[in-house]
Amino acid sequence: MTSSNTPYKVCAFYQFVALPDYRELREPLRACCAGLGLKGSVLLAQEGINGTVAGAPEAIDAFAHELERGDMFGGRLDNLELKFSAAEAMPFGRLKVRLKKEIVTLGDAAADPTRQVGTYVDPHEWNALIAAPDTLVLDTRNAFEVAMGTFEGAVDPGITSFGQFKDFAAERLDPARHRRIAMFCTGGIRCEKASAHLLARGFGEVYHLKGGILRYLEDVPEAESRWRGECFVFDERVALGHGLRERNKDVTRDE
């Protein structure tokens, strides 16, 4: 959600897609962002792209157009997950475009979202899924994020980094007992890897919230929401509430 009265527009985006030329893409992408006056962080890897940037609304719109339809990626970002929100002040101090081994680090070669992922669930269908008594609702985020807010009845894996999720799954989850799993994360990207990991381990029904918590908070009316608390975001806004409104400016991060 953005407002014409809000000076900055924030764009969070990702897509798992083969980018064998990701190293060569770094400088053109950095130059594009800098030329538009954007700040934030973008990760490039052979498995895809992941980032959050902020700038003037018209600059963000131009950037999103370049990603999806410009020459830089040549149409490869045809399934880009994009989410927009607003900020009263620039939420990033500088621009960073980095090369990584993974755009979200799990450390499991079998977890390949370009081959298989869980079933996407629209935010408007999420409440019914997690209310079902035979559904294990799983928060895939780090413990300090969970402490700020989560869905009713969700399991907190108690991890301090996403790379620990596979250890949690090995110790606490069983395909024979946990026949239906509904997982969620901030914007959806961690669930792509987590669901791929569980499917590779033999879990049958694995669902994840399309667009993550941010899309849910944007699309589902507060009166119907099963979300409790605030959603931590990795920028100077710290946390967002329903309607993606900025909340709780005084929270101190524990990363």
Automatic annotation (TrEMBL):
Signal sequence segment: none
Enzyme Commission number(s) of this protein: 1.14.-.-
SMART domains named in the record: RHOD
Rhodanese domain sequence ranges: 131-225
Catalytic activity: uridine(34) in tRNA + AH2 + O2 = 5-hydroxyuridine(34) in tRNA + A + H2O
Keyword Oxidoreductase: yes
Keywords, alphabetical: Oxidoreductase, tRNA processing
Record has Oxidoreductase as a keyword: yes
Main enzyme class: oxidoreductase
Pfam short name (any one): UPF0176_N
InterPro entries: Rhodanese-like_dom, Rhodanese-like_dom_sf, TrhO, TRHO_N
Recorded family membership: Belongs to the TrhO family.
The protein's role, per its UniProt record: Catalyzes oxygen-dependent 5-hydroxyuridine (ho5U) modification at position 34 in tRNAs.
Name assigned to this protein: tRNA uridine(34) hydroxylase
Origin species: Bradyrhizobium yuanmingense
